[in-house]
Amino acid sequence: MAANVRYVLVALVSAAIALSASHFARSMMATGHGGSELHQLMHDRLDLTTTQQAEIDRLEADFAERRKALDARMRQTNTDLAAAMASEHQFGPKVAGAVDRSHMAMGDLQKETLAHVFAMRAVLTPDQAKIFDREIARALTAPQAH
């Protein structure tokens, strides 16, 4: 019975971690105009110049491509974890390895997201960056809606 409890616990913890990483990345990045608060901030509230807008658009397009690959990798690690759990029915070496690979994929997504955020910040003027920084801090510390 204890093995079954661990099995369920691993599944729940892994799902929670995956959701947290996904929430972080999605809350920080846009899926299109009007998509996220950060996107709204960049396009509607910072009064970007034409040059800044073009650079932000380029950065967003580049990140969208990297994001597709990272999302696919996260989906694959979830599939691998499900297979390991079905195979071992306990927290064994296959499950542990799959969890580790899942954590690495989530960490890579978070790192890529942060690199993108800092690349966008580099395009801003000091006054724009102050607003940007305040909104990033607010987004990272706001309670999550469930």
Write down the CATH topology: Four Helix Bundle (Hemerythrin (Met), subunit A)
Shape call: elongated
Number of E-type strands = 0
Largest sheet: none
Helix content: over 70%
**Total count of helical runs of at least 4 residues:** 5
Overall tally of domains: 1
Q: What proportion strand?
A: under 5%
Separation of termini?
A: 31 Å
Q: Class by helix and strand content?
A: mainly alpha
CATH architecture type: Up-down Bundle
Give the helix/strand layout.
Elements: H1 2-28, H2 37-45, H3 50-88, H4 93-122, H5 126-141
Describe the structure.
The protein has helices spanning about 1-30, 35-45, 50-90, 95-120, 125-140. About 20% of the residues are buried. It has a single domain, classed as Four Helix Bundle (Hemerythrin (Met), subunit A). The two termini are about 30 Å apart. It has 5 helices and no strands. Helix content is about 85%, strand content about 0%. The chain is an all-alpha fold and about 150 residues long.
Short descriptors:
Four Helix Bundle (Hemerythrin (Met), subunit A), mainly alpha, 146 residues, 5 helices
In short:
The protein has 146 residues and is an all-alpha fold. The chain has helices at residues 2-28, 37-45, 50-88, 93-122, 126-141.
